[in-house]
């Protein structure tokens, strides 16, 4: 999920 | 990274090169919506604010820089270099009707109440509808240069390819990004009409013309 807040997609 | 996302990104890159090529070879930005291009600058700038704080990969960073730089360059081509060929009188879609609702959505749906997360969310929602001024213009004029339709097809293919990427990521990593998926489905859906005409006309060698 996105808890880390890192968006790895462009 | 999987093949769908990689091909999607390549398609996105291709669309930008096609657009720049079109403007430079015809020395004209006729048929291109300045409003759509301006929204793309806003999309890239608000989404890639993490450029200075988060490092994913060299690929990721270079693409981000390229998207910001190339979208600004396109605005320069339209507003300075080939300004006389840009006709604002047919680019009449009201962008504020897109930005307002997207801002509200971003405040409701986001992955954290920080400036960067809300702006990231805004950029995702805004991207999903950024093509509307361009499609509206196409609808209004009823025709398009073939090269412009290739640009739009590559741009639509980019988001369409992200859909199998999300399905793949769900099964391989358990990764789900509901904001991107929802907005991505909407964004791809907006191209369906265009794709229909593109496949049935342009790829058969005919001119892109909408029925009167």
Automatic annotation (TrEMBL), chain B:
The chain crosses the membrane at residues 65-82, 94-113, 179-199. GO terms for cellular component: endoplasmic reticulum membrane. Its main location: endoplasmic reticulum. GO terms for molecular function: ER retention sequence binding. The keyword Protein transport applies. GO terms for biological process: protein retention in ER lumen; protein transport; vesicle-mediated transport. It is a multi-pass membrane protein. PANTHER family: ER LUMEN PROTEIN RETAINING RECEPTOR. Belongs to the ERD2 family. This is ER lumen protein-retaining receptor.
């Amino acid at each position: 999920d996105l808890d880390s807040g890192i968006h790895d997609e462009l | 990274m999987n093949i769908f996302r990689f091909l999607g990104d390549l398609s996105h890159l291709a669309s930008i090169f096609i657009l720049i090529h079109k403007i430079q070879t015809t020395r004209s930005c006729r048929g291109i919506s300045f409003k759509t291009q301006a929204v793309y600058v806003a999309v890239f700038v608000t989404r890639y604010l993490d450029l200075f704080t988060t490092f994913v990969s060299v690929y990721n960073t270079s693409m981000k820089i390229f998207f910001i730089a190339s979208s600004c360059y396109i605005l320069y081509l339209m507003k300075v270099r080939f300004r006389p060929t840009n006709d604002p009188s047919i680019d009449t879609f009201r962008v504020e009707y897109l930005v307002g609702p997207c801002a509200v959505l971003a405040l409701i749906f986001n992955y954290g109440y920080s400036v960067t997360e809300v702006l990231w969310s805004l950029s995702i929602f805004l991207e999903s509808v950024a093509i509307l001024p361009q499609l509206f213009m196409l609808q209004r004029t009823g025709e398009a240069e073939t090269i412009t339709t290739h640009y739009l097809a590559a741009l639509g293919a980019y988001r369409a390819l992200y859909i199998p990427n999300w399905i793949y990521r769900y099964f391989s990593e358990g990764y789900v990004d509901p904001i991107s998926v929802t907005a991505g489905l909407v964004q791809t859906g907006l191209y369906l009409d265009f794709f229909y005409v593109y496949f049935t006309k342009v790829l058969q060698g005919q001119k892109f013309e909408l029925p009167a």
